[in-house]
Amino acid sequence: MGARSSATRPRAIGRAAGLGLGGALLLAMLAGCSVEDVGSKFGHFGWPGPGVSLQAHKMYDLWIASVIAALIVGVGVWGLIFWCIIRYRKRGEELPVQTRFNMPMEVLYTVTPVLIVAVLFYYTAIVQTDVDKLSRNPDQIVEIKAFKWNWQFNYRDGMGKDANTVASTIGSSDVIPILVVPTHEKIRFEETSADVIHSFWVPELLFKRDVMPGKIRNVFEVTLDKEGRYVGRCAELCGTYHAFMNFEMVATTPEKFDQFLAAKKAGKSTQDALTAIGEQPYSTKTQPFDTRRGTHSWNQGDSNVAAGK
């Protein structure tokens, strides 16, 4: 009995060491680091980055935590595989003892994946609910109106299609439309399309949503926490000039945003209003593409959209 125990103990110690070595190294690398620190050290594990909104941060944290959990599980699985390769390698012609089943092992590899999936589902549902959550009284309401092939941004005095537009910005083939929004405020976007399905996408928001024609108005909210300029695009193939359908989002302080909106209400152009708050009047992250088209059809289209047709 004593000989058997002494022979088994080194194998047990070796197995525990093999399984725990990779996990210990991973945990040592992650010790004392925030989720964003860990993500930045490893290239965000394929995610675009932490984003510029509170909702984006939650999605980023979920992604990084999921990848870390997957790596820990992977290290354990890799450890078991290599341990089995070494422990049960062929030592002769005699066949090893054949075992029909191992109830503890079967319970382990059934219950463990179910628990992992349940935990991931739980946190995914929480983050998804937070990202899709709508407040009763958002600070700003912006109507996104897409059309082939540009954007119109209407600043509204209330929610829903019956609210009034107090200021508007519309793009053309010569001027990239600029969407000015404040940081640290709840911004409600209400989307509508004048023709086909488009998609409102700012990569730094880590979020996009289709813009539907007809009576469907997709609605979502974001709270930006970082100032800057960010390129926006249409992410839904919508026709010949889909690739040219760009815009730029300018996130600024609430004070500057109020000044911008006041200037727009006073009748100033978007470029003059941007200059008034110390911003570049035209886009800096993207530029109009040479579409080799005349301007007549675009101007007519812009007039139709501005008139709500």
Question: How does this structure look, described?
Answer:
With 309 residues, the chain is α+β, with helices and mostly antiparallel strands. It has two domains: 120 residues, no CATH class; 161 residues, Immunoglobulin-like (Sandwich), CATH 2.60.40. Helices cover 42% and strands 20% of the residues. It contains seven helices and ten strands. The strands form two sheets. It has a five-stranded mixed β-sheet with strand order 3-2-1-5-8. A hairpin with a 2-residue loop joins strand 1 and strand 2. The N terminus and C terminus are likely disordered.
Give the topology, please.
Elements: H1 2-30, H2 35-41, H3 54-87, H4 103-132, E1 140-147, E2 150-156, E3 165-170, E4 178-182, E5 186-193, E6 198-202, E7 207-211, E8 219-223, E9 228-234, E10 246-252, H5 254-265, H6 270-276, H7 296-306
Parallel strand pairs: 1-5, 4-10
Antiparallel strand pairs: 1-2, 2-3, 5-8, 6-7, 6-9, 9-10
Helix pairs in contact: 1-3, 2-3, 3-4, 5-6
In short:
With about 300 residues, the chain is α+β, with helices and mostly antiparallel strands. About 40% of the residues lie in helices and about 20% in strands. It has a five-stranded mixed beta sheet. Strands 4-10-9-6-7 form a five-stranded mixed beta sheet, with helices on one face.
